[in-house]
Amino acid sequence: MSDPGGLGIRDFERSLPMALLRAREAVMRRFRPLLAEHGVTEQQWRVLRALADSDSPKTIGALADRTLLLGPSLSRMLATLDERGLVLRTPAPGDARRTELTITAHGRRLVAAIAPDSERRYRSIEDRLEPGALDELYRLLDHVAAID
Amino acid sequence: MSDPGGLGIRDFERSLPMALLRAREAVMRRFRPLLAEHGVTEQQWRVLRALADSDSPKTIGALADRTLLLGPSLSRMLATLDERGLVLRTPAPGDARRTELTITAHGRRLVAAIAPDSERRYRSIEDRLEPGALDELYRLLDHVAAID
DNA sequence: TATTGTTATACTCTATAACTATA
DNA sequence: TATAGTTATAGAGTATAACAATA
C-alpha cells in the first residue's frame, strides 16, 4: 500500500522520521531506566557524554551543536549540572563573552559508574542484529545527517 | 578514539541514540517549516498521518502505540484536533470504554494539502543518497526497532 | 479485578524574542 | 554591528499517579 488514503502521501510506515523515531525509542527504552537510576535525563546524559568525550573545554555554542540542544535549554541545564558539581563553567580566556565548559571529576565518576551497564545493554542490542549491521547503519545514518 | 576519556564508555559519535537523533534532526529540519506553515506540530502530524493511513477507525491505545505518544499526551491532543474539526471521536460500539478515532474530510484535506510539498522534500533527500540507501536504511531501522 | 481513557500534577524541553556584555 | 550567552515567556510533550466508567 503505497498511497493508502489516496492523499498523495507515502505510507506512515514508510515515513523516514517515524522509522528513525521507532528505532530510537526501541534503543532508549533500554537505556532510560539506567539513566533514571542515576538521576540524569536523556538530555543531561548527552551533555555529560559530549563533555567526557574529550579533555578540551567546549563553549556552549559548540556543545549545543554537538548535543542538538538549543542555547536556552543548555543554559539552564548547565546551571543545574554546575550546582550538582558535575560540570564547571569558566569564562574563556581571551574572549569574555564565551563560557568554557569542562566535566568535573565528580561528573567523570558518574559517567564511569553508568558506563559498564550502558555498554552491556549496547552489546545486547548489537548481538540481536546481523553481524556488521550496526556499522552499515552508522554509515547510512551519517549520510542522512549530512544532507543539509 | 574508542574510549576517549578512559571512562569505559564508547565515543559519543558512536552512540546509536545520537546517530539516530542526528539523522532525524537533519530530516525534520526540512519538514518542520512546512508543518508550521499549516499550523500542525510534529506530533499532531504523526497522529493525522496514522489516521489518514487507513480507513478503519483506531482506538486511542492503538494510536498511542503507532505514533509513539503517551496516553495523556494523545488525550489532550485529540481534544484539540477534535475542536479544530480534524478528527472525530466516537464511542466504540460494543465497548463503551473505548473511543474510536477517525480523520474527518477536513483532516484529509489538510493532509492532502501538505502531501505534495512533503513528497517533494522527501525525494530531495532520497536524491542525495546512494541508490538503494533508503531501502537498506529502512530494513536496518526495522531490525533495530524489533529488538524488544 | 482488569482495562480504557481522562484528569491532575510536576517537570523538562522547545522555540522565539529580548536583553546584557563583550568583541 | 555582530557575537555569545542569559533571561523571559509561552507552549507542548513526558511521565506517573489517581480516578471514573466499563468490562
Structural write-up:
- The structure is a homodimer of 148-residue chains.
- With 148 residues, chain A is mainly α.
- Helices cover 61% and strands 8% of the residues of chain A.
- The first copy, chain A, contains six helices and three strands.
- Chain A has helices at 16-37, 42-52, 60-67, 71-83, 105-127, 133-145; strands at residues 58-59, 87-91, 99-103.
- A three-stranded antiparallel beta sheet of chain A has the order 1-3-2.
- In chain A, β2 (87-91) and β3 (99-103) form a beta hairpin.
- In chain A, α1 (16-37) crosses α5.
- The longest helix of chain A is centred in the last third of the chain and has 23 residues, at 105-127.
- The model of chain A has no long low-confidence stretch (mean pLDDT 91).
- At the A-B interface, α1, α2, α5 and α6 of A face α1, α2, α5 and α6 of B.
- The first copy, chain A, binds a DNA duplex (23 and 23 nucleotides) through residues 41, 43, 59-61, 69-77, 79, 92, 95-99.
Layout: helices, strands, pairs:
Two copies of one chain form a homodimer.
Chain A: H1 16-37, H2 42-52, E1 58-59, H3 60-67, H4 71-83, E2 87-91, E3 99-103, H5 105-127, H6 133-145
Antiparallel strand pairs in A: 1-3, 2-3
Helix pairs in contact in A: 1-5
The first copy, chain A, binds a DNA duplex (23 and 23 nucleotides) through α4.
